[in-house]
Amino acid sequence: MTVYLLKRSLTLLITLILVSIVIFAVLMVLPGDPAQIILGIHATPESLQNLRRQLGLDQPILIQYLNYMKGFFTGDLGRSITYEVSVASLILQRLQVTIPLTILSILFAILLSIPSGIYASLHRNRPGDYGVMILSQIGLAVPAFWAGILLILLFAVTLHWLPAGGFQSWQSHPIGALKSLLLPAISLGFVRAAVLARMTRSSMLEVLGEDFIRTARSKGLPRRRVVYKHAFRNAIIPVITLIGLQTGDLLAGAIIIENVFHLPGVGRLVFEAIGQRDLPVIQGVVLLIATMIVVINFLVDLAYRYLDPRIRYE
Amino acid sequence: MKKWLFLIWIGITFIFSSTITHAQEKPIYGGSLTIAQGVEPPGLDPTTATSAAIPRVVYGNVLEGLVRIDRNGKIVPSLSSDYKISKDGKEYTFSLKKGVKFHDGKTLDAEDVKFTFSRLMDPQITIPNRKYYQDVESIEVIDPYTIKFKLKNPNSMFLFNLARPDSIIIHSQVADKLKTAPVGTGPFRFVEWVRGDRIVLEKFREYHRKGLPYLDKVTFKFIGDPSAQIASLRAGDIDVIGYDVSPENALLLEKDPRFKVYNGYTTTEVILSTNNSRKPFDDIRVRKAMAYAIDREALIKGAMSGYGTPIGSHMDPGNPYYIDLTKTYPYNPEKAKQLLSEAGYPNGFEAVIKLPERFAYARRTGEIIVDMLSKVGIRLKIELVEWGQWIDRIFKNADYDLTVIGHAEPFDIDIYANPKYYFRYDNPKFQETLKKAETEINPKIRKELYATLQRMIAEDAVNGFLFVLPSLPVMKKEVMNWWKDYPMTCQDVSEVWIQK
Known about the structure:
Chain A is an all-alpha fold.
């Protein structure tokens, strides 16, 4: 296990270094100068030079990169060029939206998809199965942002039950914060649920056809036990893989939903930072997302082991 | 007799109804206003960055200058009670209002003003618009409430420049907090900024304009997506969308009895910027042909749902020096074709129009122009450009043929005097006349000179002069006294109130 953990940490380190080099390179190739964007189109060359010096943009690119990485490994992500506050505090603030949103939408997706996937597999080719499959087909076809707009029209504009967007802080309005995350979580979760339900169904069908299920049944075990203890536990592994992938995807890919619901999440932070060429913020967010994806994959691996003790890590 | 009675009855009803409406018009104190804004300001210091999102939050609300532009476009005193300009136009003496307090309780005096302008002229500090103060020779504190600016030469733009957000008076002890938590003299004090979400201001009880403001609390909410702004307005989460409502949304909301829309003007001239140094645009006949080929009325209808005011030169109709030049090159495609053949392009030519992808008005205007110009044989290829790239490639390096963009800065005709500006327009006569206009003390002659300047660039067809963007603020019916026109880049809510 120790060797495994060491190996994993090394992977993380290499991933982060590669990712950081790629972002740096991309931002250098992209035209657009942060100083010009801040000072606007009428700025004099002297002011621009002045500001570039203050921001450290006048140094050679390699030095800029090394300085950044030095800071990164000592826990200092630098200061945002546009906001003039530390990148770490900006990201921490935004994570208060992104992490709960990710958890809520994944929870919603799991609660909706796994029972319906199991149900569909147990009622194969019967009306219940068709119902689940049609719904999931719709879920696959509907883009999350469009579902979001429909939900806003119904619950915010017409019924006034939930806000049309925005976010209240957890500290001052915990209920308000939860309320403002509900609609975006549902719109993100619905699409995810569609994929998960299909995966659960097909995986269950496969396992239900296995010999050991027949054995369990012929042993006279109650149906519940056969389904949940024997079939489900074996069928869930590919589903867990998918959940892991989707969680990583949600952390990085909620930009559009964050825009529709104007949530101050990590996605919008990086989106706006790209427009402003706010290098420290872009760098910080992308590295953070890369870290989280590696960590999630690690957790997924641990979950495999828990579900199937035969799996060993070397 | 009956007739008389009838008239008296009408008279009485009129008096009653007018007192009733008058009573309704009386401002009500209290309440909280939430304003949606598309772009979040990058820092709150309007002196060190030029994003229009900054003054739209702080200027006139938190921070104020010696003078300001009122809702009618006039320069009026703000922190000064009075000002005198010497006969030779080189000395400006301001008397400061007495008893003006900063939000932290400090009293404003002439030393703050001196500090402000010394800072603006300090080469160590990055000030993008230092040119506004380049003619200042010295600043003298005469007594705690009187300050005198001496200029190297008369500058007719000086007073206007003092009314820009760049010239806000700064509290010397907390100047370093200007970017993150500004302390000013305005009707509202800064409370908090939740980055990515909102900025909250609250009423400043010791504000120097007595009786103002009416509102207790003002929140600026940053909602980037236009349809999300509209949904929030409809859901009742926000009260006003101050800027950048798309024309088709304005049209839609105008029909909704819960909301009202003002169709005013702004200072943003939308132009078909033309690279005057590139072939074939260096030929005035080609530029004139393009001017004849553009039908402004149809363009405004098509791109802006009919909102927006046509212009014939680079000045907005709210400017006191504005003259109407929209008839310089009236729509005439035949004439355009003739001019093109004269210039040696009987079959037209091909060129690229680079449109800033970020701005819907620019994209749509560009698309319609492509169609209009194709009718006289000019075949344009559209290239969408990301904003950072637009600044870099087009604005800085003039790497373009044509583009469409709105110039938001008020009173910026001087850009045509800079041959390095991205239009690459080099006309010594224009440069000379501008200098004269800027140093002319006699207001009548000055006005004439600015008219000549407008005419010069209109006749030279330097760019395609299209229209000024409409203001189009959309708000709940209950929001009263919002500015209809935007003669300055700001969202001044000092006089706004909410009807109960």
